[in-house]
Amino acid sequence: MPHRPVSYTKELPSSSTWIAKEWYNKENTMAQGGYKRMSILKKGLAFGLGLAIASKEQVEKIIDELVKKGELSLDESKEVIDQWKQQTEARKTEVQRLVREQIKQVIDKLDLATKEDVRQLEERIRRLEEKEQSGQ
């Protein structure tokens, strides 16, 4: 099991949060001589791995911690949060599309009536009823 940073051991809401923090810490200490500042894009990518499934509150808490420590500026933190929101929305849209596609395939295999099938039948019944009423 990897070594966890001492400052994070008591406040871990999830393993994904720990992964993001651990990755961020390793990236920041890689430079010879100590501290290396990562570009905002690299920070966003590092957060993306562990925070992809984290809640908004968890993301904001981690970002706030990094701002307090001076590891992120306020502008960088806003950009990271915006990137996370965009990625989350894109994943949400894709998951919804995949779920709809899978449900449609299941319905097709089960040979169940779709909303469109029901709508067409209702329209056909309406026309037949009109025809019957006009014929009497």
Report on this model:
The protein is mainly α and 136 residues long. The chain has one domain. Helices cover 72% and strands 0% of the residues. It is built from five helices and no strands. The protein has helices at residues 15-29, 40-51, 56-68, 74-110, 115-135. Helix 1 runs antiparallel to helix 2, helix 2 crosses helix 4 (74-110) and helix 3 (56-68) runs antiparallel to helix 4 (74-110). The longest helix is centred in the C-terminal third of the chain and has 37 residues, at 74-110. It starts with 14 loop residues before the first helix and ends with a helix. This is ATP synthase subunit B.
Question: How far apart are the first and last residues' alpha carbons, in Å?
Answer: 83 Å
Number of domains: 1
Range of helix content: over 70%
- The poorly predicted ranges are 1-15, 26-41
Tell me the structural class: mainly alpha
Instruction: Count up the helices.
Output: 5
Largest sheet: number of strands, sense, barrel closure? none
Give the overall shape, derived from the CA principal axes.
Answer: rod-shaped
The Cα radius of gyration reads 26 Å
Overall strand count: 0
Oligomer: single chain
Work out the strand percent.
under 5%
Order of helices and strands: HHHHH
**How much is the average pLDDT?**
70
Identify the notable features of this structure and list them briefly:
single chain, 136 residues, mainly alpha, rod-shaped, disordered N terminus
Q: Briefly, what is this?
A:
Helix content is 72%, strand content 0%. The protein has 136 residues and is an all-alpha fold.
